[in-house]
Give the backbone structure.
Amino acid sequence: MTDTERLLAAATRSIARRDAELLLAAAASLTRTQLITRVEDFPADVVARFETLVARRAAGEPAAYLLGRREFWSLDFEVDPAVLVPRPETELLVERALALVAAPDAVVADLGTGSGAIAIALARERPGWRIVATDASDAALARARRNGERLAPGRIDWRASPSADDWYAALADRHFDAIVSNPPYIAADDPALTGDGLAYEPRGALTPGGDGYAALLTLINGAPAHLRPGGWLALEHGESQGERLRAALVARGFTHVTSHRDLAGRERITEGQISHARF
């Protein structure tokens, strides 16, 4: 057994194999391909770094924070505990925005941008779009800006929100062809908040408190005043929240209200179109 396999075998008693490979590669300053093909033993300092990383991951700290990066939309994002770890299911929100808005020069807002993953993915796919991205966290917005400078320089208007409760203040009187958001939507008493990974992520980006609907309903109620006629609102949400959000969108005057399921079959994105004058 090579040193690589020995170390990975020991680590996978407490963490997933993929995480172990990523952490060992990071500890040794190697790519995963280089790691797999390595035959010589690792120096003691590399082994010590790896064992420390494994212990932290086993305690629940997200591998993305330990590595300082996470892939999203085939792009490499820098992440830290100031921002949520971008997740594969959120790529569905990017897909829906691209499908809903046909105009090559559309104006789109990403509210609660976090690492900037959604805004940057859209900017990369639609070079002619003008994109505004907001966040109430100065630390998150700083991380998003850094990701933007590297992955979509000069393409996104980054704006600070004055508070976590005022989702539209940073937009002033601007109007958009689409507004997208992955807001906090987990109920305050959901045990998932103390589970693997989530316990280390920014709580305010995970839950608005209460039953988890406050941010989602605020976004729905405020959207018509910031959408052009024919504009779209698309929201990521929890798997059991779609029905209530569809009803709220219809009550607010949205049409073509639809929910979409992620690859696991869970309702994940709900969208609606506003066709009448703003109000």
Summary: The radius of gyration is 20 Å. The chain has a mean pLDDT of 93. The beta strands are 69-72, 75-78, 107-111, 130-135, 156-160, 176-181, 227-236, 254-261, 267-274. The CA atoms of residues 123 and 155 lie 7 Å apart.
